[in-house]
Design brief:
43% helix; alpha/beta; binds NADP nicotinamide-adenine-dinucleotide phosphate; two-stranded antiparallel sheet
């Protein structure tokens, strides 16, 4: 495993980490979750990502039970949660968003479900137009001072709102956001590469990037249709299927065109796609998702492909994904 600093903070995260979205508590029960977390930890993965909204808190419960059962030393891994969407269907106004009330209560609930005393990373899962940014920054600062959160950050906030959070923190001597959690993959690059570019230099922010395979698209598994046991075939995720596959054939054409490069490298397309994310020095960790052991095994092998991705290959890849 390789380790990277989370921006300019002192925290070193494994270059590949592992998250629970869609899978834990839905496709993956406690037994499989145990196998996946054990494999990841054994290979040096030290960051496990979660959120209050993942299967309405069940993903956190599954992860918490399994981490307790595996008895990993608490100082050998980092665990996160995210607040915003709530942990129930149809949340009441006090059960969602980034008000001081919900941020504090959601943190308490995440600690209980994950069975830990503190969250290493805690994210504001989206911007909340109904809460002043200052209120959220102050709530996060309180959690850090209480020792319930070590590093706080944002997820998919516009750069402008992150600048504002930093301004408020600086002027009031409050803990500022340390990291962003944006989507980043070969087919989704603009925010990480352009919009956020000024943030890295100005504040030393790191990124924990999500959906490196675009929900599996960049493994090539959807090239010939939607396999029945795949994420995009899940009945509750029709919206995701539409968002990943509903944009015509252009994305699938690019995925198919990348396959020969993976073949040349002697790796899988998933490994190529994950390794490519790590070429970006502002990516602190690539958060993997997996519904079964073979996927996680394969995806962790991206680190073997990474040294083979030289400038010429990177340019060939860019030409394919940037083609109209
Ligand atoms: N902050 C946010 O808003 C946000 C949003 C999304 C995710 N996240 C975090 O980021 C983590 C990773 O995102 P993600 O799960 O979307 O990552 P991803 O790598 O884009 O997709 C993972 C899914 O792709 C399929 N897959 C993975 N490896 C494969 C392989 N080698 N061959 C074939 N299929 C493969 C599996 O689904 P199937 O087997 O079911 O097809 C797996 O669950 C999440 O778990 C979550 O912690 C955060």
């Amino acid at each position: 495993m390789q380790y990277r600093r989370l921006g300019t903070s002192g925290l070193q995260l494994s270059a590949l980490s592992f998250g629970a979205w869609v899978t834990f508590g839905k496709q993956v029960g406690r037994g499989e979750a145990r196998e996946l977390l054990a494999l990841a930890h054994d290979r040096g993965v030290n960051f496990f990502d979660n959120a209050e909204t993942y299967n309405n808190g069940v993903a956190e419960q599954v992860m918490g039970d399994v981490l307790a059962d595996l008895r990993f030393p608490r100082d050998s891994y980092c665990v996160s949660s995210k607040v915003f969407f709530g942990a129930v269907d149809k949340p009441l106004p006090t059960q969602r968003g980034l008000s001081r009330k919900h941020v504090m209560e959601a943190c308490t609930q995440a600690l209980q479900r994950l069975r830990v005393d503190y969250l290493d990373l805690y994210f504001c899962h989206r911007p909340d137009p109904d809460t002043p940014i200052a209120e959220t920054v102050m709530a996060m600062d309180t959690l850090v001072r209480q020792g319930k959160v070590l590093y706080w950050g944002t997820s998919e906030w516009p750069a402008e709102a992150i600048h504002e959070a930093h301004r408020i923190a600086r002027e009031n001597h409050l803990y500022a956001p340390v990291m962003e959690q944006p989507q980043y993959n070969l087919l989704h690059r603009e925010r990480v590469e352009e919009e956020y570019a000024p943030l890295y230099a100005a504040y030393g922010m790191g990124t924990t990037i999500w959906s490196p395979l675009g929900s599996g698209l960049l493994s090539g598994k959807y090239n010939d249709g939607v396999p029945v046991d795949s994420r995009l075939a899940q009945p509750d995720y029709a919206w995701l299927r539409e968002s990943v596959l509903g944009k015509g054939d252009e994305r699938l054409r690019k995925v198919r065109a990348l396959q020969p490069i993976a073949d040349e490298l002697g790796g899988s397309l998933a490994q190529l796609s994950i390794a490519w994310c790590l070429l970006n020095p502002h990516v602190s960790t690539v958060m993997l998702g997996a519904s079964r052991r073979e996927q996680l095994e394969q995806n962790l092998g991206a680190l073997e492909v990474l040294p083979k991705l030289d400038a010429t290959l990177a340019q060939r890849i860019r030409t394919i994904v940037e083609a109209a």
